[in-house]
């Protein structure tokens, strides 16, 4: 039982001990962040002699139990930062990761003119993170996000509103490029995608935050991890405007296989982009 009022430092230490016992990395940092969330604060400053009341302790303990079960931190707080955006997240979507920002960095390198009126397409949009980050950098662009999960489409649409981009972003529920019927005038200047790329037999061996909580639909890349790329690349050339650009996020070691699939589909490899860890993360393709 907790005392009626407990100091901030004691509450943090209590959470740290429980998280450490559950094998959570950086348990003190996570305890502080969870307590800040329980208090309704973005972060905790110096704790000093502040105290925690019963209602806050109960919220904090409920969050600790979820985190000790290896539920991702972002699902507990309901939000995740990506690029310059603040995004709502839920178990219906993958949690946006810093590695995926490599897609936006590649886009800005290959299309540096920020004033261009680009037509953007995001395949497997999830939270909308890639599409919305791109739109935030290209103020004259418009974009379409497609996801086969209705819940993900609703989340992406809500994130567009949350970040002031709803007027330039539309979300559509459907299966990859089958969701749209394109004439030549409807083709896209830029297609971005972070499709499922984990070989199905490898999912169980991922960290429990991923294998036990993130949506399997957004992880499962089939037996070799390349199933989604085969589907996307078979139709991608017809979706791109002349000179159009496609940026596909990939898993570690998939660059040569995805590049070969792209070449067989009539697309030119423009470059490969590595993330901050040095892993090739994005295949950059151009239409003839």
From TrEMBL:
InterPro entries: DNA_methylase_N6_adenine_CS (IPR002052), HemK-like (IPR004556), Methyltranfer_dom (IPR025714), N5-glutamine_MTase (IPR050320), PrmC_N (IPR040758), RF_methyltr_PrmC (IPR019874), SAM-dependent_MTases_sf (IPR029063). S-adenosyl-L-methionine binds at residues 124-128, 147, 176, 194. HAMAP family: RF_methyltr_PrmC. Transmembrane segments: none annotated. The keyword Nucleotide-binding does not apply. The lineage of its organism: Bacteria, Pseudomonadati, Pseudomonadota, Alphaproteobacteria, Acetobacterales. SUPFAM superfamilies: S-adenosyl-L-methionine-dependent methyltransferases. It is an enzyme of class 2 (transferase). Methylates the class 1 translation termination release factors RF1/PrfA and RF2/PrfB on the glutamine residue of the universally conserved GGQ motif. It comes from Lichenicoccus roseus. Belongs to the protein N5-glutamine methyltransferase family. PrmC subfamily. Residues 12-78 form the Release factor glutamine methyltransferase N-terminal domain. GO terms for biological process: methylation. It catalyses: L-glutaminyl-[peptide chain release factor] + S-adenosyl-L-methionine = N(5)-methyl-L-glutaminyl-[peptide chain release factor] + S-adenosyl-L-homocysteine + H(+). It comes from the Bacteria. This is Release factor glutamine methyltransferase. Residues 117-195 form the Methyltransferase domain.
């Amino acid at each position: 039982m907790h005392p009626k009022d407990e100091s901030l430092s004691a509450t943090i230490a209590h959470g740290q001990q429980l998280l450490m016992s559950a094998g959570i990395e950086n348990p003190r940092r996570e305890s502080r962040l969870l307590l800040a969330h329980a208090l309704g604060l973005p972060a905790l400053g110096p704790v000093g002699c502040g105290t925690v009341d019963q209602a806050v302790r109960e919220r904090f303990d409920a969050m600790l139990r979820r985190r000790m079960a290896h539920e991702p931190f972002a699902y507990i707080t309901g939000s995740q930062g990506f690029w310059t955006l603040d995004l709502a997240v839920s178990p219906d979507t993958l949690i946006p990761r810093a590695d995926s920002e490599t897609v936006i960095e590649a886009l800005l390198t290959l299309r540096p003119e920020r004033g261009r009126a680009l037509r953007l397409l995001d395949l497997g949009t999830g939270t909308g993170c890639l599409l919305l980050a791109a739109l935030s950098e290209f103020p004259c662009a418009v974009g379409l996000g497609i996801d086969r999960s209705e819940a993900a489409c609703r989340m992406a649409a809500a994130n567009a509103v949350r970040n002031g981009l709803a007027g330039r972003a539309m979300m559509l529920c459907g299966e990859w490029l089958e969701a749209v019927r394109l004439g030549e005038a409807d083709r896209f200047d830029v297609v971005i995608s972070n499709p499922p790329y984990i070989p199905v037999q490898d999912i169980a061996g991922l960290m429990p935050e991923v294998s036990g909580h993130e949506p399997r639909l957004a992880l499962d890349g089939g037996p070799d991890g390349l199933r989604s790329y085969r589907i996307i690349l078979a139709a991608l050339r017809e979706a791109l405007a002349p000179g159009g650009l496609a940026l596909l996020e990939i898993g570690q070691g998939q660059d040569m296989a995805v590049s070969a699939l792209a070449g067989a589909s009539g697309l030119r490899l423009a470059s490969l982009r590595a993330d901050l860890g040095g892993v090739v993360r994005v295949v950059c393709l151009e239409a003839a």
